Amino acid sequence: MYLMILGAPGSGKGTQGKLLADHLGIPQVSTGELLRAAVKNGTPLGRQAKGFMDQGLLVPDDVILGLIREILDSAEAQRGVLMDGFPRTVAQAEAVDRILAERGGRVDQVALLEVDEEELVQRLLGRATKEGRSDDNLQSIRQRLMVYQEQTAPLVAYYDGQGVVRRVAGMGSVEEIQERMQKAVRA
Ligand code: ADP
Questions:
Q1: Domains, the chain, ranges and CATH?
Q2: Strand 165-169 relative to strand 28-30: parallel, antiparallel, unpaired?
Q3: How far from chain centre, in Å, is Cα 126?
Q4: Strands 165-169 and 109-114: what pairing?
Q5: Per-residue pLDDT tens for 3-61?
Q6: CA 78 to ligand 1 centroid distance, Å
Q7: Stated pTM of the model
Q8: In the annotation, is 144 catalytic?
Q9: How far is the CA of 85 from the centre of ligand 1 (A)?
Q10: What's the pLDDT tens digit per position in 74-104?
Q11: DSSP class of residue 46?
């Protein structure tokens, strides 16, 4: 099963994705986490990505797609995978459709986490104090929300066209939202 979690920055993709992947018994892949690890370790990928991430911009598609091919080729991903933070552009979505089609697969479901914009900003500012992520400052947060609206939100229509979107209300406690997620992907 290939499952994507779609949602704005701060919508809870990582938290909910991890719980849902455990529940489904498939690995979770977060492109954001992989990129942050690469930056921290100073790898070539990290050096390419850092400037974009700090400014709240997307890392270029060709860089991300190299990473995605590697993941989908790995032994752990053969029974399926839950991705959070990918795809983020229509070009990425089209590319992963081609990659999965080569393997006889497809994106089975897309869980869309819906959260009010005011709540998103509050959560991201809260996380900035707690986790000290270098891209959680007001300027980068505004930029990431704008990038989401411009480049990632069009994916909802793209996947609606494939009939795979499951909308999940992303407000409430972590447990409540997780319950909705599990129901949504079962339905
Ligand atoms: P958030 O959803 O809060 O922005 P992520 O961890 O998903 O957090 O992403 C952090 C940053 O990593 C993004 O702002 C972007 O620079 C980069 N990134 C993550 N995934 C992708 C992707 N699929 N394509 C391009 N850039 C990405």
A1: 2-26+81-186 (3.40.50.300)
A2: unpaired
A3: 20
A4: parallel
A5: 999 999 999 999 999 999 999 999 999 999 999 999 999 999 999 999 999 999 999 99
A6: 24
A7: 0.92
A8: yes
A9: 6
A10: 999 988 999 999 999 999 999 999 999 998 8
A11: H
